């Protein structure tokens, strides 16, 4: 399986609402609640709808998002920073959220994509059970494969609710991950330039 396909659900496997509803009802029983009380009666169905949205990326491919490629007379860095990202930690199924910064240097023929498509691509991978490291590298690899740029940099900074509301309980702790490919990996100067734009200060 190619890295881009990792985590992609078999498209034949439809999202199973009824099964989620049964499972959530079970969990409610198991924690000692009454799933039939007023406030909880519709909860299994609500959770199923929420999961359909939260995990929609399991049925999407990166090329569904990066589907507009133009040619432009521009072959220098394009960076979209501060893309809000919400994902689900695959260890505890609780959210992690933060900011993604995605930059690339177009190839010599100046192939670029719509700016919003980079944010859409982040969502394709974020809307799956994830670890932050894999999310970061999948976004970078998809851009390399589809746009064939000279290089890509992806930086994600996020707070994991599994580390704040439970477990070690360290609110405010940020996890920063990066994936660099092509020019950004090869040339320290190019990488430093991107990092200073991302962090908003000289690195
Ligand atoms: N590398 C990585 N680890 C993650 C991510 N999200 C959560 N984790 C960690 O996954 C680990 C799971 O550890 P376990 O010991 O199996 O589970 P646990 O007993 O619930 O661990 P604690 O969170 O320490 O209470 C924890 O250290 C989490 O902080 C992520 O995106 N990347
Ligand atoms: Zn977790």
UniProtKB/TrEMBL annotation:
Keywords: GTP-binding, Hydrolase, Metal-binding, Nucleotide-binding, One-carbon metabolism, Zinc
SUPFAM superfamilies: Tetrahydrobiopterin biosynthesis enzymes-like (SSF55620)
Ranges in coiled-coil conformation: none
Keyword Electron transport attributed: no
Catalytic activity: GTP + H2O = 7,8-dihydroneopterin 3'-triphosphate + formate + H(+)
Record domain GTP cyclohydrolase I: where: 20-198
One GO MF term attached to the UniProt entry: GTP cyclohydrolase I activity
Pathway annotation: Cofactor biosynthesis; 7,8-dihydroneopterin triphosphate biosynthesis; 7,8-dihydroneopterin triphosphate from GTP: step 1/1
List of residues binding Zn(2+): 89, 92, 162
Keyword Electron transport attributed: no
Alphabetical GO biological process terms: one-carbon metabolic process; tetrahydrobiopterin biosynthetic process; tetrahydrofolate biosynthetic process
One of the record's GO cellular component terms: cytoplasm
E.C. code: 3.5.4.16
Pfam families: GTP_cyclohydroI (PF01227)
Superkingdom of this protein's organism: Bacteria
Enzyme class: hydrolase
Family from the record: Belongs to the GTP cyclohydrolase I family.
Subunit comment: Homopolymer.
PANTHER family per UniProt: GTP CYCLOHYDROLASE 1 (PTHR11109:SF7), GTP CYCLOHYDROLASE I (PTHR11109)
NCBIfam families, per database record: folE (TIGR00063), PRK09347.1-2 (NF006825), PRK09347.1-3 (NF006826)
Name of protein: GTP cyclohydrolase 1
Species assigned in the record: Actinomadura logoneensis
Lineage: Bacteria, Bacillati, Actinomycetota, Actinomycetes, Streptosporangiales
